[in-house]
Design a protein that fits this description.
Helix content is 24%, strand content 38%. By secondary structure, the chain is of the alpha+beta class. It has a domain of 212 residues: Beta Barrel (Elongation Factor Tu (Ef-tu), domain 3). The strands form three sheets. It has a six-stranded antiparallel β-barrel. It holds the Pfam family Beta-barrel_RND.
C-alpha cells in the first residue's frame, strides 16, 4: 500500500513525512460530534422528580409569635411581725399549699403581750360588773329620795365608762392575738416556693416587712407575647373581605419550646391588650396554658402558635417545595407535558411542616417537592408521587426554606 509522502529538502539530506495521521484525526473528531441517535444510540429519558397534587381545603391560619412564660400568681412572703427568725419549715423549690407554715418568728414577746392584754380585759370586766351593780342598787333609792339624783347619775356614768374600758381591753386582746399569729408565717397561695431569702437567727420585720421567700403558682402558666398591630389590622381586613373566617369561641394556642418540640397541652387566648406600644408598634397578648407537671417555668422563652382565623380555599404545600426570598415566594409547577415553570404564591403561615398557600395555585396542580438537583440541562421531567420518607433533608434542596420563620397570616392576606 502506497501513501502520499512529503519530501522536505535540506542541505545534504531529504526527509519523507507520512500524511496519514491528519485525516484520521479529523474523522475521529467528526464522529465524536455526531448525534447519539445518528450513532445508533437513544436519548436519555427525562429525570423523575417527586411532586404533590394540590388539593383545596379549609385550613387554620396559624401565626407564630415570640413570647415568655409567667407565673399565673405570685405572692411575696413577708414578715409582718418583728423578731428573730427561729425556724424554716419548708424545702426550697418544693410545692406548698395555701396556709402551710413556712417560717416561725420567736413568739415569746407576743405571748407576753397577749397575756397582758387578757389580764387588762379581766380587770375591765370586773370593774364593769361592780359599776353595773352599783347603778342597779341606786335606781330604787333615787326613786325613794334616799340618795341624791347626782349620786345616781354618777353611778350610771361609771357603768358606761366601765363598758368602754371592756371594749378597749377586748380590742387590745384581739390586736395582741393578731400579732402573735404573725409570728407564724404561712403561705398565702398554693404554688412552688423558691429559695429562702433569710436564714434562721436573722432579725426580721424591724421597721419594714422583710421579704422571706416568693411563692409562684405555675399551673396554669401565663404566656405573654406580642404581635405587630399592622398584622392585626390586615387580619381583620381579610376577615371583613371574606378571605378568612374568624375563629369562634376560645382561640387555641400552642407553645413551641426552645428545641422545636411542641408542648403537648394546648392553651387558650385570655386577652389582647387595647394599647399599642409607641416604640415598637406592637400589642401584647396573653395566653393561659395548663402546666400540671411544671414543665413550663416562669421566664422561659417560647414561641406561640396562635390560630386566629381559618382559610376555606387554601392548599397545603411541603415547606421544602417553596423558595422564599425578598422578591416573594415561588414553587415549581410541572405541567402535563412534563415541562416545569416557577409560579409565585402567597403564603399564610405554616402548619406541621407545610406552608398554607392562599393564592397562586389551583386544585390539580403538580408541585415539585424533590429532585431539584436533576433539573440542570433539562427542559422536561417525569413527575412521580412524592415519597417523604425517601426525600432528602430539607436543607439539601434549593427550594427548601423550612428554616425560615413562618410568615404571619396577616401579612399573607395583603
Amino acid at each position: 500500500m502506497s501513501s502520499t509522502r512529503r519530501v522536505v529538502k535540506s542541505p545534504g539530506r531529504a526527509f519523507v513525512w507520512p500524511l496519514l495521521a491528519v485525516p484520521v484525526a479529523v474523522m475521529l473528531a467528526a464522529c465524536s460530534k455526531q448525534d447519539p441517535a445518528q450513532a445508533g444510540g437513544q436519548a436519555p429519558p427525562p429525570p423523575e422528580v417527586g411532586v404533590v397534587t394540590a388539593t383545596v381545603q379549609t385550613v387554620p391560619v396559624v401565626t407564630e409569635l415570640p413570647g415568655r412564660t409567667e407565673a399565673s400568681r405570685v405572692a411575696q412572703v413577708r414578715a409582718r411581725a418583728a423578731g428573730i427568725l427561729v425556724e424554716r419549715r419548708f424545702t426550697e423549690g418544693s410545692d406548698v399549699k395555701a396556709g402551710q407554715v413556712l417560717f416561725r418568728i420567736d413568739p415569746a414577746p407576743y405571748e407576753a403581750t397577749l397575756a397582758s392584754a387578757r389580764a387588762q380585759l379581766a380587770r375591765a370586766e370586773a370593774s364593769l360588773t361592780q359599776a353595773r351593780a352599783q347603778a342597779q342598787r341606786y335606781e330604787p333609792l333615787v326613786k325613794a329620795n334616799a340618795i341624791s339624783q347626782q349620786d345616781y347619775i354618777d353611778a350610771v356614768a361609771s357603768a358606761k365608762a366601765a363598758e368602754a374600758d371592756v371594749a378597749a381591753a377586748q380590742a387590745a386582746v384581739q390586736t395582741a392575738n393578731i400579732n402573735f399569729g404573725y409570728a407564724t408565717v404561712t403561705s398565702p397561695i398554693s404554688g412552688r416556693i423558691g429559695r429562702a431569702l433569710v436564714t434562721e437567727g436573722a432579725l426580721v420585720g424591724q421597721g419594714e416587712a422583710t421579704q422571706l421567700a416568693v411563692v409562684q403558682q405555675i399551673d396554669p402558666v401565663y404566656v405573654n407575647f406580642t404581635q405587630p398591630v399592622a398584622d392585626v389590622t390586615r387580619l381583620r381586613q381579610a376577615i371583613a373581605a371574606g378571605k378568612f373566617k374568624s375563629v369562634g369561641g376560645a382561640v387555641p394556642v400552642r407553645v413551641v419550646l426552645d428545641d422545636g418540640s411542641v408542648y403537648p397541652t394546648a392553651g387558650k387566648l385570655l386577652f389582647s391588650d387595647l394599647t399599642v406600644d409607641e416604640t415598637t408598634g406592637q400589642i401584647t397578648l396573653r395566653a393561659e396554658v395548663p402546666n400540671p407537671k411544671g414543665a413550663l417555668l416562669p421566664g422561659m422563652y417560647v414561641r406561640v402558635r396562635l390560630e386566629q382565623a381559618s382559610a376555606s380555599d387554601a392548599i397545603l404545600v411541603p415547606q421544602q417545595a417553596v423558595t422564599r426570598s425578598n422578591q416573594g415566594d415561588t414553587v415549581l409547577v410541572v405541567g402535563n407535558d412534563g415541562k416545569f415553570a416557577p409560579r409565585p404564591v402567597k403564603i399564610a403561615g405554616g402548619r406541621d411542616g407545610q406552608w398554607v398557600v392562599l393564592e397562586g395555585l389551583a386544585a390539580g396542580d403538580k408541585i415539585m417537592v424533590d429532585g431539584f438537583q436533576k433539573l440542570r440541562g433539562v427542559t422536561a421531567v417525569k413527575p412521580v408521587p412524592w415519597n417523604p420518607a425517601a426525600s432528602q433533608p430539607a436543607g439539601a434542596a434549593p427550594g427548601a426554606a423550612a428554616s425560615a420563620a413562618p410568615a404571619s397570616a396577616a401579612s399573607a392576606a395583603k
